[in-house]
Design brief:
InterPro entries: DUF5995. This protein is an all-alpha fold. The chain has eleven helices and no strands.
């Protein structure tokens, strides 16, 4: 893939496949497709600092998710952080927001830094920081919109929010900003290291630990999650349709 339009064609295919297979990986695919649409629209109105470079970054960035998805579907092993997200999508015991955050965790915390460094090649990595931050701003905007309207697919999730006060519960306190800051720091480390393969393995191991915290948030939330999950919509395709409406409403340009 060389253009965002080609990425969007592939994302449409993944969304349709997830819907037909009732795969919960479709929740993240719905969100990320809208992120990609939003970036494409921004490029068309020359919103970014370097719009041609932004398209290259977006294609590389999306390509890492698509490659991970294709590896998993073909029975091969993607990075551990993606593998945990894919495996979690095969069970009904996790909330919609858990599935979304598992995808974001792998994609921002691992994939984005790598994609930014690869986009710049031999050019100074600092040159892409502003547009790097704009990708995260787009994602944060959509995630905030989903959180505000999560009741449309998870009727009593709002009950959990007050429980996060003063507690280190990653599921309730997941921060796109913190993920962005960590991803930018890693982009610099990856850009400057000689053994990039080893760097990815080490980073992936650390991000997989965060994924496990999202999957297993601890005894405090376990019972509450079961209660929330009990009243969430059971139809994956119906949830995907509603989530698609929510993320479209959250988009601004």
């Amino acid at each position: 893939m060389k253009t965002i339009d080609e990425v969007l064609v592939r994302m449409d295919q993944i969304v349709d496949l997830c819907k037909s297979e009732q795969s919960r990986m479709g929740y993240f695919a719905i969100l990320y497709r809208q992120v990609t649409r939003r970036i494409r629209d921004g490029i068309l109105v020359r919103e970014f600092e370097d719009n041609e470079r932004m398209e290259k970054l977006d294609v590389l960035f999306a390509g890492r998710f698509i490659q991970a998805y294709d590896l998993w579907k073909s029975g091969q092993k993607p990075t551990n952080s993606w593998l945990l997200a894919f495996e979690a999508s095969m069970t009904s015991k996790h909330l919609v927001l858990q599935h979304l955050f598992l995808g974001i965790n792998a994609h921002i915390n691992l994939d984005l830094g790598i994609s930014a460094a690869d986009t710049m090649g031999a050019e100074p990595i600092a040159g892409i920081q502003n547009d790097f931050n704009k990708i995260n701003a787009v994602l944060a905007e959509l995630v905030d919109g989903v959180k505000v309207n999560i009741g449309k697919v998870s009727p009593i999730f709002g009950w959990l929010i007050p429980l996060a006060k003063g507690r280190d519960e990653m599921l309730l306190n997941f921060s796109i900003q913190l993920a962005r800051d960590g991803a930018w720091k890693y982009a610099g480390e990856y850009y400057g290291c000689e053994d990039r393969s080893t760097s990815i393995l080490e980073r992936d191991a650390n991000i997989a630990k965060l994924a496990n915290k999202l999957i297993n948030p601890g005894k405090f939330l376990l019972l509450m999650l079961k209660m929330v999950g009990f009243v969430e919509w059971k139809s994956v395709s119906r949830t995907m349709d509603q989530l698609d409406t929510v993320v479209k409403e959250a988009q601004t340009i």
